[in-house]
Design goal:
Blueprint: H1 6-9, E1 14-16, E2 22-24, E3 34-35, H2 36-45, E4 52-56, H3 57-77, E5 87-89, H4 96-106, E6 112-115, H5 118-127, E7 134-137, H6 143-152, E8 158-163, H7 167-179, E9 184-188, H8 213-225, E10 232-236, H9 246-265, E11 272-274, H10 298-315, E12 322-324, H11 329-332, E13 336-346, H12 362-373, H13 379-398, H14 404-426, H15 433-442, E14 444-448, H16 452-455, H17 457-462, E15 468-470, E16 480-485, E17 494-495, E18 498-499, E19 504-505, E20 508-510, E21 520-523, H18 530-533, E22 544-551, E23 554-561, H19 566-572, H20 577-593, H21 599-613
Parallel strand pairs: 4-22, 5-6, 6-7, 7-8, 8-9, 9-10, 10-11, 11-12, 14-16
Antiparallel strand pairs: 1-2, 2-3, 4-13, 13-14, 13-21, 15-21, 16-17, 16-20, 18-19, 22-23
Helix pairs in contact: 3-4, 3-10, 6-7, 9-10, 12-13, 12-14, 13-14, 14-15, 20-21
The protein binds pyridoxal-5'-phosphate (PLP).
Pyridoxal-5'-phosphate (PLP) binds at residues 89, 92, 138, 238, 241-242, 276-279, 326-330, 528.
Length: 621
Amino acid sequence: EALYRIEGWGQPYFSINEAGHITVSPKGDRGGSLDLFELVNALKQRNLELPLLIRFSDILEDRIERLNACFNKAIAHYNYSGVYRGVFPIKCNQERHLIEDLVKFGKPHQFGLEVGSKPELMIVLAMLDTPGALLVCNGYKDREYIETAMLAQRLGQTLIIVLEQVEEVNLVIAANRELGIKPILGVRAKLSTQGIGRWGTSTGDRAKFGLTIPEIMEVVNKLREANLLDFLQLMHFHIGSQISSINVIKNAIQEASRIYVELATLGADMKYLDVGGGLGVDYDGSQTNFYTSKNYSMQNYANDIVAKLKDICAERHIPVPTLISESGRAIASHQSVLIFDVLSTSDVPLDLPEPPQEGESPAIKYLWETYQSINQENYQEFYHDAVQFKEEAISRFNLGILHLKERAKSERLYWACCQKILKIARQQEYVPDELENLEKIMASIYYINLSVFQSAPDCWAIDQVFPIMPIHRLDEEPIQRGILADLTCDSDGKIDLFINRRDVKSVLELHTFKSEEPYYLGMFLNGAYQEIMGNLHNLFGNTNAIHIQLTPKGYQIQHVVKGDTMSEVLSYVQYDTEDMVENIRQRCEKALEEKRISLTEFQKLLQTYEQSLSRYTYLSF
Ligand code: PLP
């Protein structure tokens, strides 16, 4: 377990069972579990091919319950006289079944939704029917966005339009005059509190979104002049996603609470404070403020927000607001697991060649001697020698002095030296910097049936680290070290950052691949942002996805969402597959006429071509 640190990032949903398989406990500590390997086999028997995204709706429910429980506990503990009303930012994952589940599981908590664009607004207006739930409208807005939002207030939810730019207030005032509807407005403030990590620049004066303090004053003045200052009821901030340090959250809530009370003092009818997203996910299980982790629990997060806000409101005798958070990552990440298979592997040559022969190049002799003499004391120095002798061999080859056969032998000797050095280095407490890379150079390449660009774009775009590990054979020692190479013809289509025993490493410990047996890997905690940000590089489409729910007797497959077929991805780039089939038929006719193809081949080609178009874009065996 320690190897992949599953006890850190997996709790309480993922663990390893006695059969050496991953167990999923979708209800967290509330009981019920599934063997993931057996589940995948059962799904394959239903013709659901890999790669396969499995969504556990019970995990989603558990995340919503936890977040609400933490805020409610903090509210009770600090005697906070307001309530918590969370909203889910649908940008994290807009998939229909997931949003349906979210609305359903959120009902007992009046959990609402947040949108950041017009199309997202369309979804939410149609989906959110929870009485009293909040609908927070963020993002850049035009007149149409604002009018739709104002009219939709009549549907029964509390809809709040958050101003991100000063001009939006003019649109609101105009729409109010025309429609006669009174909106609830918010302002998104650019805090001076600096975020942290990858999204640290989401705040500050030059941040992309929100209003500076002078701009907020301008909005207040405009509303006051129009006699509409009572429209302004919410103050919002978002200091970036995946905040790894609790101190940043403490500083932000302090500054935001001050702005809130000032707005109330200026005469706005303040009722809501929206703390945005940022609640982190512990991807590496280390509970540190490293960018792949977070140094606080969900309860610490809720406590610090509630306590600080209460204090500052009390100090200024301002009633506490309804507290809103827009946690996306912390709600949606855990519920989906991506399962994919290994297709083959490739290794550097590791067998030791014959000793040097009479007349062979001196480079071969030196490499051989280096290999024989490597030991604990000299391995670092001899690594440099091996590199130098290999480079010499290549130079001699380029000058035409070394034959291909000799070059091959010198390269094999070089790899043998590296292998011997690596074995020694692995036993050392401290590995010298220059040898750190050796592990990666020597790693096997595991070719995986997946597109990183489609299924884990953040791995490629921002070096995001998701937990990845085999879902079976975990009772067997993984003696190989590998990196993962995907199906795309792109050298960036690889994964070479993994969570390891102690930290993040460039190689993953894996089992020896046996071509006659399937070898399944799982990528965990990737339910937020990945699906919608995924792209069609090389025309690998959406993967198959299923929704699973635990039942007293086992589990139930609630929905199967078939992945894209080749026809579907081709239509995204404006191909008409009927035309394409017709084109192939006509070319076959011509080839037949010119006797380049037999009738049987003609028939087979056409049949295969047509059938392929309706198939999955990934490889199947
Ligand atoms: N709210 C806003 C305005 C955002 O921009 C984001 C994402 O960056 C979120 C909420 C969700 O943040 P997180 O996924 O960190 O909870």
